[in-house]
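ENTRY TYPE: paired fold submission
RECORD: A
CONTENT: sequence, then structure tokens
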Amino acid sequence: MKTSRIAAALLIALAPGSFATTAVAQSGTDDPMTAMARARFKEGVDFYDKGEYDQARASFLQAYALKKHPAVLLNLAWSCVKSGHALEGKKYFDQFLAEGKDITDKQRADANDGLAQAKAKLARIEIQATSGTDVTIDGDHVGTAPLSDAVVVEAGAHTVKFKGPDGATDTQSVSVLGGQKAVAKFPQTASAGGAAIPPAATSAPSSPAPSSEPAATSPSDQSAKPADAPKEAPPAHKSTLLLPPNNLVPAIAFGAVAVAGFGTGIAFGAIKGSAQSNADSVAAQIQQNGGGAGTCVSPIAKFASACNAYTSDLNDVNQDATLANIGLGVGVAGLLGFVIYWVVADKDTSTALQSVPMVTPMVGVGRTTSGLSLSGHF
């Protein structure tokens, strides 16, 4: 069924004549409250169609505060479930089914499916405490022990506070996934003459029953919607040192500097070796022709050309050695920057450490390859 047709029908339902509480029906026009409710409802439909479920929930809440119409309540419940407020969505689905007088079979089936999806996302906390113990979860008083059933909560971490009949108190942090049940036990269960309550085993995760109806795509489409599978908690990491940083650009830049520096150092080192070989060859020729160690200090005409070549080669050796040392220094600096950034940079620890890439420099000798080596395990 088209979203625009349903939205139009529900907007018409927000007319003054649809409510027994309307005191005065203005001829041909809506009263201000209805006009505002209609505007907020249309706004909520637009947000939902865009996938902006939190904004849709806020708009439907405002519309329902202005006009408590079942059509608004059903859309509000779906927006809550889609925006991660499953417990709130369950409340509105229950309210819609309890208060709806003229709802259609299609609407009732849609609400029941939404209720099942909301329950599948929720978790439960079983309370074990001495009779008369006041129990508070996340600041809300949920009752006095013994509680008839486990307390339904949103999946995630919760703070449970106990206050025993003798005044003893305790606070516990409980984390539970959607579809699972956790146990919160007051350590003073044997005080004040009460019998100790044995610990109950935590039930295994339960899977919601599959829906027999097709899924819907908008808040005003009254067909059934698919249940979102509960998310599994990511595995804990033993160490974050090897995890890649959130921003790899600086690491890549440092790696490039390291590669360029080591490559330059190796290249000029090879050139220096060639220049040194040339100088040694000229010196050997001078010695073969009667020259000695001091021949090129004050060269005679016989050795002038050879001494000039020898001096030029020695200058090349010194220059190439300097450039090679500078290149190696830059490479070392780039490598240190890479390692330091990799260790101290912000990292995402919510994902499993399934594959950790390792980037290490490779420095060759002579004609061997230089650069970065990328390795990992899968």
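RECORD: B
CONTENT: sequence, then structure tokens
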Amino acid sequence: MRRFALLLLPALCWSASTSITIDQLITMARAVPPEFSAEALIRIAAIDKVEKTRKIDLLEEAFRRAGDAQLPYKRRASIVKVAGPAGVYNRTAAQGLDALSLRLKAVRAMLLLDAARARDLFRRIPPLKLPALACEEYLVYDVDAFYDALSHVSRETLTPAEIEKGEELRLIEPYLNSITSPVQLPGAARLIAGSTVNDKDFQTLMAAFSKVMVKIKGDDRSFSFAPVGPPIRAIVEAAEKRKLPAAPLLEAYRLYIVNNMAAARCADDDLMVYEATSFAFADPRAAEQQGPDPSAYFNDHLRVPPLQEIKEVEVTPSKLEGVATGLRGCDDEACKSIVLQYTGLIFDADRNPLPFAKKETPEWQGHVEDLLTAMAGWKPVAPSAAAEHFREKSSLYSDLVNIQPNTAGRIKVLRAELQYVVKDKAGAESRAQWFLPINGIIGRVTLDPLGLGVLSDDLRNSGDPIITLFTELDAIAPRRPDLIMPLI
């Protein structure tokens, strides 16, 4: 009990540091751009002392506001092995500030309050429209959460009597029929595998899934990103338990593999092999690894007679075309000079890591001051490079915070980062990307209020209503560490 109390102490201290009321917080939330408004209202609705009817109203309002978010869907980097902006894009996506993610958050929160309203909200989400991607693009759509939410809605809002009457089938099937992108298939397959429909309806779902799957081709970037073999294996196992034939599904999946692997493919697909972790936090897709060759997975784990093995000649690409662009950053001399200074704070002349004691010396701290001065004067090489510059500069500030040996050093860097991000709001590629470093600063204060709490006044006095809102929100309802760590 004592250990648990000690873990709670920082959060309690932070939550006691504001006098803002719930009503004031709601007013503040309604005055900011829609993605921030929706996110704040959802979090306010989770506060225990807000009464149930008001929670429901807030979630419905958040759902409406989410539709006007700047970004329609979550997009993440499909290639993470190359040093560059991939980490920024993935951390931006982790905030869930796109329209679909926000609507799904509202639905999931509503499930705890009113099942019927939650189902109604879900049905009001517009059909997913995911355009095919060129090989030059490496940001792919990530809509797994949509099918996960649909699974929860079907399980938690339908009564056994409704399921028996086929309501689960009628809820799910239209979403299967509207699939157009490879990235939708893994989530949809898991949805089918976990459904509680009767055997006849299960066969109907498998048939609908098979029908759309064989039609999907011409988007190799998304095809290579979305491993559907393991989820299909889950459907097959569920069918076997029901004593239902899965051969038509496997035949359709075989055709899907051949159609896509034998078509024109991106020349850099080998870079898209997933690792178990990405950017210091677990990759939720790691458990679905099927390797870089879907045909090999099919042959080894799914094929059953009379289906034939997929031969190499069947999946030889018709041609290789295009590679992802924009993977690498920091191409200009000013950026390279800044990075060189930063590297000197980590390694000695022989590329050995500097010992911790070295970082506590006045000499090392002087080099930090020099770097902060250089970063303050660092400007984009051209207006067209503003977004890239914002990503690189804000990321470097965050990295610099992480290598500081003490709280005083972290405060100094965080203040410099805050000052920069507030001034360069127009430089970011999107509002969500601009908010990422701010979100990280607020999160660091939430995790360490006794050490970094002095920054709360800097945040509140920044003059930006979004920053003030989320500073007060974290003070009233601190986020869990697992929600903060992926952002920093």
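NOTES ON RECORD B: The chain has three domains: 32-79+94-121, 127-328, 333-487. Strands lie at 75-77, 139-141, 264-265, 277-278, 281-282, 319-320.
STATUS: closed
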